[in-house]
Amino acid sequence: MGNGHGHRQHRNSANGSVPQKPSGSGYRYGPSDHVAHVPSSNQTAQSKSSTNMLSLPYGHVDCSLRALAGQAEGFGRFAVGGLHGPLYHVTTLADDGPGSLRDACRRKEPLWIVFEVSGTVPLSSYLNVSSYKTIDGRGQKIKLIGKGLRLKECEHVIICNLEFEGGRGHDVDGIQIKPNSKHIWIDRCSLRDYDDGLIDITRGSTDITISRCHFSQHDKTMLIGADPSNTGDRCMRVTIHHCFFDGTRQRHPRVRFAKVHLYNNYTRNWGIYAVCASVESQIYSQCNIYEAGQKKVAFKYLTEKATDKEEAASGIIRSEGDLFVTGTQSGLMTEDIKCNEFHPSEYYPTWTVAPPTDDLKHVLRHHTGSQRVPRPADAPVVAQ
């Protein structure tokens, strides 16, 4: 699937020197790298002739089944899913009953859930996922329709290589994360055409990473932070990287209160805006590609009043190394907001990021979402 690691850069913590990185490859962004690395015109030219060098992160996670656990970058990096539980084999596409996905997800013990069948699972109601679960669709083609997954007051959940399509009903999201859930990783999923959101993260849910996902055929794509009355959402932290927002209309994401790190995403042809910062949100947008269609402004600010404040406020967006193409206007506010902004290095030491080139755009178009990859062999867990 072309997702092996590229060359990585590590900052020398003793003297702050940065080794020369190969053009066109992914590289590590260290804790004191407070300015995004953008390729020179010469590097860009070299990059165009070296597409094969550019690759998505997590190339090693398919070497064995459980190598996925604890390997996320960003705020969700501690998610272990069902690492320490047995395999649960889904043997039926039925909505419920023995051998079903719903049966596996409701169980209280840690489980690594794999599929022995391919096809469509029709959900008649939200499928609630309990703590310490990995839902691993590698090796099969699994599509969830009708409703979606709900992660409610749970922790350590990994969702990998699934399709979500055609969710119907009031407040029906593809993946709904609320309330008070944490340590979540959503990787290599395809989501489209739900009546509400594709992924909604609200009501104190935090430490979440969304990576290598493909979003399409949708309006309100991703909401982070419920409404201005939910001041408890100030704790929320989310990383979104190497995702493809493919003609979806808005909310890539829309954020209230939370700290959000966006890097190496490709957002194109939105209908209203790409990214929206609302009440007290802090968004760090790094080396993303924003490609406008008819609507040209990428960033939007909405002013709202938190219920425990006397004055209304919008959020803040810091853009470093982003690429705005096809006449895209950033829409960034010009006020000095540095005293309020966050930097990801305050929370995690390294992450894999590449320059926003045509090579990156090509890889994100063709290698995000659910992939045809074999299910890796299981291996014993080595106690630490």
UniProtKB/TrEMBL annotation:
Ordered alphabetically, the record's keywords are: Calcium, Cell wall, Lyase, Metal-binding, Secreted, Signal
Biased composition of type Basic residues is found at: 1-11
Which family is this sequence assigned to?
Belongs to the polysaccharide lyase 1 family.
Q: Name one Pfam family in it.
A: Pectate_lyase_4
| Family matches, as SMART domains | Amb_all
Task: Name the domain of life.
Answer: Eukaryota
Q: In which pathway does it act?
A: Glycan metabolism; pectin degradation; 2-dehydro-3-deoxy-D-gluconate from pectin: step 2/5
- Compartment(s) of residence: Secreted, Cell wall
Q: Which reaction does it catalyse?
A: Eliminative cleavage of (1->4)-alpha-D-galacturonan to give oligosaccharides with 4-deoxy-alpha-D-galact-4-enuronosyl groups at their non-reducing ends
Q: What is its EC number?
A: 4.2.2.2
Cofactor binding, per record = Binds 1 Ca(2+) ion. Required for its activity.
Q: Keyword Metal-binding, does the record have it?
A: yes
| Necessary cofactors | Ca(2+)
KW Nucleotidyltransferase (keyword) present: no
Q: Where is the composition biased (Polar residues)?
A: 12-23, 39-50
Drop me one GO molecular function for this one: metal ion binding
PANTHER family in alphabetical order: PECTATE LYASE (PTHR31683:SF113), PECTATE LYASE 18-RELATED (PTHR31683)
Chain ranges of the Pectate lyase domain: 98-296
Protein name in UniProt: Pectate lyase
User: Which stretches does the entry tag as region Disordered?
Assistant: 1-50
Checking InterPro entries in the record gives: AmbAllergen (IPR018082), Pec_lyase (IPR002022), Pectin_lyas_fold (IPR012334), Pectin_lyase_fold/virulence (IPR011050), PEL (IPR045032)
